[in-house]
User: Fold this.
Amino acid sequence: MLMGMHVNAQTAKTEIDSAARSKFYISAHVATQGVGLELKYAPVAAFNVRVGASMLPFKTTGVYSVRSEPTDISLKAEFSNAHAMFDWHPFLKEPSFSRKIIVTAGAAYFWKDRGDAVVSYRGTYNYGDIPISSEELGQLYGSVRWNKVAPYLGFGFENAFPSKKFNVGFAIGTYYMGKPDVTLTGTKFLVRNNSNEAQFRENMSYYQFLPVLQVNFNFSL
Amino acid sequence: MKKFIKLFSLILCVSFLFNSCRNPAYELNVLFDADVIQYKATLILKDATGKTLPNNIAVSISGTDAAAIYDFSGTKAIFAPAGVITLGVAPKLVPVSGKTLSFNVGITAPGYESKNIPVTIAFNQFSQVINVTMLQTVVNTPASSVATKDITLGVDGKSTVVTSFSTPNTGTVAQSTTITVPAGVQFKSADGTILTGGSVSAQAINFSSASPAALALFPGGKLSGDNVVGADGKTGTSFFLPAGFTDIQMFVGGVEVKNFSTPIAIGIQLDPTFKPQGTGAALKAGDVLSIYSYQTATGQFKFETTGIVGYDAANKLSVTFSTNHLTVFIVGDVVNTTTCKAPKVTYVAPWLNGSSAPLTVQILSADGAKVLASNTVLVTDGKVDSFVGLPPVAVKYQVLDASNTVLATGTIADPCAGADIVITVGTPANPVQNVTLQLNVVCPGKGSIVVPNFDLFYKVAGAPNSTYALLGTAVKGQIKTALLKVGSSYDFRATWKNEIKVVNNRLISSIDLSTTVDQNGYLGDKSPNGNKALLIEACKTQ
Assistant:
């Protein structure tokens, strides 16, 4: 993956001097954290400041097995944040491709940072000869909430001296979201699964990072 | 530069690994609540003489709401391990307000009278216990006496001579039934076929209606009937006040006789302490009583005729009548209860402190002389129940514990008026300990599971099996009871499907006992290997 980005990033040419370059950009991005817009200000070639927002409305359904039980799982994730990032071109004086490398640090405020899952038994459960439909069995509701404020660290590839009005950049990094708050509740015949909440919380405690793969479409102003 | 890229690649890979190295569903075990069946009825079968019941008891369900009824394990096949039938209502077909479920439980066992037990399950009547007394057809009991007789048949299937036989008077059964079969009678099967053979095997069982034990032997196991065809031909519910009843059966070559070509005569001696509803005075010659028949197969009572009380040859009050069919015959008063509204009963027993105790609730005649109904009620503090099927006459009630100590008593002016009744159950004399038993089960490969509900029986360690009594229903593996004492040892028996599990000589070492059964842990003291196999098999269905 990193090698692929490397190849893409090499396609851009950067041949203008720093005095002639634009200092303001508007940028649209598509990322694993959602789609969004940013305003970028580059007072000097080596440093950028970016502020923007991203939104990720995500819904999916699928069939999974929880232990040996076939289940339908409906997932809904919403991540919406406003963020501020600082980019640094540490190798700007290097003649090679490495001059395009940026190191990014920042933070985001997530006004939406939740994941919800609804799990239901797939098919008909038989208690002896008594068929119990999925609706009658009930559902499991899982909910995960992360910290509102999350720091970010990453790096990317971007031309500090774009020759054209439009250029493309890439970023890869991660937000540190912290240990999430987790709830797991069951209804009807699944109500006893509340006892699974501790295990679910333990499982989700491994999900403290929100990885970001981002493609930026920059327009100089 | 290369070091930088390596460093960041490492950081990011680690972050991705953090997000993928643990499946969110890791070690999650979807637990289905075993409390699938909310409404249950437990029928506890006992031999009238205390004998051990056979294993091959056959159980069938019939009637209006039979489709809703399953074995408590969820199967349509109904089991009776150790004489315990536990029935449940399918979740989708549970009773609702204004809609009571009605069905019949047919019970047959070799050598025993067949039983047809009508059961009703009302809205919010989540649990009930029905005691069923099984009667061996040729054995006298304290409340019944039996006579058998062979009646010689001619080649044309006709009785050759007048044959008369009577049930014996015993030390506890003072009345008898006399059957007189004239000469020339032909015997027919249920489909009307005239039966031929060398002889008719006849038997009659006379019940002492004065005996409290006879109550359990009355058709259906109680004096109320919900399928009664009255003298006006209408079907409804009624309450029987029997002065005498008898069960007569005849067989030709193993085929049951149902009808006769010409009537036979039946004389039933009556309980002299019986007081007809019409007079309220002691029974006397000239009183008129109703005669009803009862068909075990259908569970239906039917008005046959009336009989005038007179004195028979033994100078005992009796009613004699003729009939062209065989069945159970009941002589006495019958009170229509079709329009009755059952009173709601609330038990107040704070001393139970969250525990349950099976108590006997008896309904007595106003003078306390006769037991009209007797039920085992699994009482908890605040339990709401109802007195169903009682007659519209003043009655007394009393609540007894296992040692027959009266814990509550009172009167009901009109049990058909539907008035609310609050019964405050007195604290037993012995100190009450609320012992909690908790069973946890860990299934191989599945982790902890919810234990299906089951009825638990107990007896003092080493006592005869006939003394097993209901301890209560373990809900989600837990039972809290006021019947056990810390420091005492008991034998426990649980039934599930067609299986019986016994734990003998278990000391109640503390007020809270918790046991976890695990394939790799505790599997019992007596037969761990057998229990392990049982656990693995049972876990397959979880």
